[in-house]
Design brief:
Purple Acid Phosphatase, chain A, domain 2; 21% strand; 10 helices; binds manganese (II) ion; 4-stranded mixed sheet
């Protein structure tokens, strides 16, 4: 008889993109009840990196924590949560475990602006919650960690799978075994380039190390072949024997799902038969939030990735131009299609002065791709808006509307 396994949806780095998270959860069949997303047969596993970068960090944390507290999701720690703990923990020598340099503060700025400064007491609670997140999850036939699975480094933690104050302090000191363990699990493996070689990151920083495909044994392979993602400029000379790369991750071991690697948005693919990354840069232009639906398989199936393109608050400068005024519909609403001269995007504007809801909900907007323009008529406009993202007329922000546009008689 076939054993029934718990089935999981492993969701990649969110970085404050709460609207996109809601859209992905909905696509995966999770329904929100009393603030908690739930699926009748499945659980979510979040790979960490909830904070920094994006516009709705607090809401992201609220969605994730509500699910973890209710038992509809598990979550592991990302390097951004770890860095935040170090940034806000005093080192006992007048400074902090993570120095408050300009570069490090900038990486953390969105979280400082959105939570730490306006809600300092609440922020302390979030930091305490971060400490409850496991550093890795070994579920027997499935493993989840933010960046890299390494049995030797996991052994260093002596079965302690939480960041206690002692482990936090030890791990913040370079040269300790705890430092290496946290680096590897949460940030992945890096190797130093040969002398004279550097590469430049997306942020413009010059680096002397590259991230490597930690599951691949180094034996004889080049820096270029081992780089993750593949750096075209990485030298095509063999990497010298290096302890940190010994062995790789055996293909017979259970599948590992990670986030972290900020992959270039593309159709998600596995990295190896038993390795998948679900981080496709939701916080960058054109990015996506990705999930892997695991049903007990020992190998990653490319068909089981599910993803949503990042939903961003649109720019609404005052250079909109009407390109079509449609006749009023049966509800006698004003309907027009507007093109924004700066962004080149089209918006369907639907205004109904007798709408059943409050004043701010009388005006509905949604984006219209060029290809759909010809399909919109007075008869179809209302149906077109329903089920899409609506713009909130109060704040100009995009919201995944829980109130569909329905009028009396619908
Ligand atoms: Mn990360």
């Amino acid at each position: 008889m076939k054993t029934r396994h718990q089935r999981y949806d492993i969701i990649g780095d969110i970085h404050g993109h709460a609207d996109t998270l809601r859209a992905l959860l909905k696509k995966l069949g999770y329904v929100e009840t009393n603030g908690v997303y739930c699926h009748p047969e499945r659980l979510v596993i979040f790979v960490g990196d909830f904070i920094d970068r994006g516009p709705k960090i607090r809401e992201t944390l609220q969605i994730v924590r509500a699910m973890v507290d209710a038992g509809t999701a598990l979550a592991v720690m990302g390097n951004h949560e770890y860095n935040a703990l170090c940034f806000h923990t005093r080192n006992g020598y007048g400074g902090f475990l993570r120095p408050h340099t300009k570069a490090k503060a900038e990486q953390h700025q969105a979280t400082l602006d959105q939570i730490a400064k306006p809600f300092p007491d609440e922020w302390k609670e979030w930091l305490e919650w971060f400490k409850t997140l496991p550093l890795f999850l070994d579920l027997g036939r499935l493993r989840v960690v933010h960046a890299c699975w390494d049995n030797e480094q996991i052994a260093v933690l002596h079965a302690s799978n939480r960041l206690s104050d002692g482990l936090l302090r030890a791990s913040a000191t370079k040269g300790t075994p705890e430092y290496d363990a946290i680096e590897v699990l949460l940030k992945g493996k890096e190797i130093k380039l040969p002398d004279g070689h550097t590469f430049t990151t997306k942020d413009g920083q010059i680096r002397h190390e590259i991230r490597v495909k930690w599951w691949v044994p180094a034996d004889g392979r080049t820096y270029h072949a081992l780089s993750l993602p593949t750096y075209d400029t990485a030298p095509k000379v063999p990497v010298p024997a290096s302890k940190s790369l010994e062995g790789g991750y055996a293909t017979k071991e259970p599948p590992v799902i990670v986030g972290h690697y900020w992959l270039v948005p593309a159709k998600p693919a596995r990295l190896a038969p038993n390795i998948a990354c679900v981080d496709y840069s939701v916080a960058t232009e054109g990015g996506m939030l990705v999930a892997y639906r695991w049903d007990g398989e020992d190998e990653i199936y490319p068909s089981r990735f599910v993803y949503t393109n990042a939903i961003r608050p649109p720019v609404l400068p005052d250079d909109d131009v009407a390109i079509a005024d449609l006749p009023r519909d049966k509800a006698y609403a004003e309907i027009s299609i507007i093109r924004n001269r700066t962004t080149g995007k089209n918006w369907l504007r639907y205004f109904h002065e007798h709408h059943a809801f409050t004043a701010s909900q009388q005006l509905f907007w949604c984006e219209v791709p060029d290809a759909d323009l010809a399909t919109i008529t007075a008869e179809t406009a209302r149906a077109y808006i329903n089920g899409r993202n609506h713009l909130c007329d109060d704040c100009g922000d995009l919201s995944w509307s829980s109130i569909p546009l329905c009028l009396y008689g619908d």
